[in-house]
Design goal:
The protein has 309 residues and is an alpha/beta fold. The strands form two sheets. The protein has a five-stranded mixed sheet with strand order 2-1-3-10-4, with helices on both faces. Helix 1 crosses helix 10. The protein is globular. 40% of the residues lie in helices and 17% in strands. Its main location: periplasm.
Length: 309
Amino acid sequence: MTHRLTLNQGDSSESRIYYCAHYLADRLGFFAEQDLVISFITSESGGHTIQGGQVPAVINREADLTLGGPMVVMKNYQEKGPELRCFCASVAANPWFLAAAQAKPDFQLADLRDKRVIDVGNVGTATLTFRWLLRQHGLAEAVTLLPGSGDEDRDYATVAAGDADYALHSMHALAPAIANGMLHSVASLAEPCGNVPWSAYIARADVMQEKSAAFAAFTRAIAQALRWLQQHDALDVAEQIQSRYPGYALAALVTGIAAYQQAQVFAPQTLIPRAEFDHFRQLLSDIGWLDPSLPVPYTALVTHPGETA
């Protein structure tokens, strides 16, 4: 029996390198092996809350599933929204990086003291997480964090010219400037923040129950894709998914994938470990994204359909 699911990817800005597992599963035939057909759709606009981007399409049943931050599912639970579940890991660490005009092979976070960092992306939870990281290292008052201008190329040029010291953004956004030599990657924020389920596949609980066989098949296919990601180099991966990133240079794609592989940003398996979920919950409470007085139970928000080994 052929199963069918509709995956809403958000707007075009949401199709980032670190979300490539489902593209690999499609390209390499892993969905087909599971007798599963995935329809990829997009939203007209993006968003980083329960009200914006691709999540409303899932809530309204316009799509069966989407990919995004478990932080949205946690906040939705605290706000008593529709029952949503994170059911399959995708990104297992903070995908944001720091880049500078010159290579800094011995860079330490302490080197940010008295420096100017442009927050190019201006993405709420990423910014708050970076501020949390600065506090953890006693740098909260020692770093000048400048908001991005809204023009990424302009911000990168500012750093390249020495008018700011570092650019903060996802490697997906930074890779083109790094690949062409304008900037150099100096640090991944993955290890300093610890393992967290930064992104996962999300669906309504009732839809998962209604289409349980399809969701189990999807999870098995993503598990194959995540293993494939670990077993192949960045060029192999880039060649498989390049058609999904029109206008994105192959060299930049390779640069970005290699950086994410080295930083172990791609989830090693589809299971979302309780300890990592709880660490993320605590981090999100510390930065004010979640209400620390309200519960965010792992068992109510995370499920693991199908075979995940």
